[in-house]
Amino acid sequence: MSDQIIQMENVNKWFDDFQVLKDINLEVRQKQRIVVCGPSGSGKSTLIRCINRLEEHQKGKIVVDGIELSENTKNIEQVRAEVGMVFQQFNLFPHLSILDNCSLAPIWVKKIPKKQAEEQALKELEKVQILDQAKKFPGQLSGGQQQRAAIARALCMEPKIMLFDEPTSALDPEMIKEVLDAMVNLAKAGMTMIVVTHEMGFAKEVADEVIFMDEGMIVEKAATKEFFANPKSDRTKLFLSQIL
Amino acid sequence: MIKRLNFLGTPSRDKLNLFISIGVFLFVLGIADVILNSFFEINITSILPRLFNYFTPLIFGFIGLHYIRIEFSGNRILDNLNKNINSNWFNAVLSLLIIFVLIQNIPPLLNWLFFDANFVGETKEECTGSGACWIFIKTWFPRFIYGLYPNAEIWRINLTFLMLIALVISGFFVPPKIKKYIIIFLLFIFPFIAINLISGGNFGLEWVETTAWGGLSLTFIISIFALLFCFPIGMFLALGRRSLAPVIRYSSIGFIEFWRGVPLITVLFMASVMMPMFLPDGTYMDKLVRVIIAITLFEAAYMAEVIRGGLQALPRGQYDAGKSLGMGYWRMHLLVILPQALKLVIPGIANTFLALVKDTPLILVVGLLELVGMIDMAKSNPDWLGFATEGYIFAGIVFWIICYSMSRYSQSLERKYKTDR
Lengths: 244, 421
Hints:
The structure holds two protein chains of two kinds.
Chain A: E1 4-15, E2 18-29, E3 33-37, H1 44-51, E4 59-64, E5 67-68, H2 73-82, E6 83-86, H3 98-108, H4 114-127, H5 143-155, E7 161-165, H6 173-188, E8 192-196, H7 200-206, E9 209-214, E10 217-223, H8 224-229, H9 234-243
Parallel strand pairs in A: 3-8, 3-9, 6-7, 7-8
Antiparallel strand pairs in A: 1-2, 1-4, 4-5, 9-10
Helix pairs in contact in A: 3-4, 3-5, 4-5, 5-6
Chain B: H1 2-5, H2 16-40, H3 50-54, H4 56-68, H5 76-85, H6 89-115, H7 134-146, H8 154-173, H9 176-199, H10 215-241, H11 246-261, H12 264-278, H13 287-313, H14 316-324, H15 329-344, H16 346-359, H17 371-379, H18 388-416
Helix pairs in contact in B: 2-4, 2-6, 4-6, 7-10, 7-17, 8-9, 10-11, 10-13, 10-17, 11-13, 12-13, 13-15, 13-16, 14-15, 16-18, 17-18
């Protein structure tokens, strides 16, 4: 298919002797929204961290937007500039204001003039509804606001793909919704997204496909409705019965 | 028995005035006893046995403080006093002892420093008082500041340091846009102007050998240059030690451990005696330059470890976030990692800088005479023998002022860059 944007073939990864990813095959098309779920330690985070090479895979092939991930650092930086990532712990830069957090990479990586980068940052901050916090520092914001700022920061690089690594797991329950709302809006705008999450409500609402992982393998991969209505493997059934 | 002796009962609010007046009376009696004893040689308690009357001030004061110790007395001054220096019997004894030591020592010290000291005059013979002879410092003052620099050329040193001070002060008051240029000028252009002006040899300025430089101005010259260079070198070494490339990592580790492992005195001797032997024939490097290089590399090793401590303290998520935004190694470090790491280790950096400034007198061993070296020379001058104490007190005060202001500045930087709540 021509609109494939991520392609993973037989990807294997080890941490020392422990195999975290076993023969992962995955294809993601443009504008597709995929939710990855599974028990902790199943390799979900490692999988999406491999996509922008925050983790290196040892065997197999990963192609992102036509660029194969290899030792070549230029390729990696190019891929990373096109793939936005949102982390569980927000990872905002605490020494910079929210606005500077958002405009830093566009100015220094994409070489956009400062004024233009800041205008764009303000636009993205408005989209996630924290325009009024732009001048504050990350330490002065609530968890939900920080995570939305992190989403805005990633969007400022105008990525083609967004990766979310358990974006709501470190948040208080009442803040989860504001972050999920921002993500739903992003999905509606047609962004390609891969989301690692335990929020099954979010999965049902926006995902095209759900992937269930366990022990480093993709156990089940199905269209969202199918996944929740008729899970095929017993392991998936057990997991769903525990979290739903 | 004890109950009967304590005929007034436990100190309480009910009889506040009675207890306070007795307590204050005894306390004042104790202090008066010490003062009379040490300055007027009158012993008001001489009727008591000798061993006992030695401790009478302490006993008077102790009982006095015991009577004053009334909780929630309602008197704010008394409550503060009780909370801070009289909270229990142990604190009361410590407070009393400190007060007694101060009473006995402060007046003689002030006498020596000021009241019996000699300020006016030109020669040693005019120092007739029993106190300090500040004439010594006054006479030698130009030497302490400028070393053996020719008197006629001293304006060049003055001009250089005035320019430096003016630039630094203007840096604080101009808008950020101009400030950037001032900092660049200060770091990259001014050092050359300064060296040219002080050493001379061109633009019609008379050449002054570095061996003639000295005193406080030399202390500043060495400190400033060493500070300027050791910081970036330390930064690269710290990054190098964390590098994934074995060649860079092991050479950084080797460099750091070598310089941290040898004493500064050895390094200075090596720089002044051994290094010329390794230089190719015909090349000549000034001794002062060699010494500055030695001190710089020595302190850079310490600086590297301080900065590495800051790098170590940053969570991995910061690296992940930098990378995920497409930043390469240098952009990530310059924009994200180092600003945070350096902020964390401001106290450590200030520590290393202070140590550097205080290490400069060691260059005495290779024959360069900065402030302490000049004092050493002055005190062994046949006309001015016997004034070592004054000299060293002067040096101590000067170094203390320099180091304390650096320390205050580092604290203000810490506050300025504090962005978390």
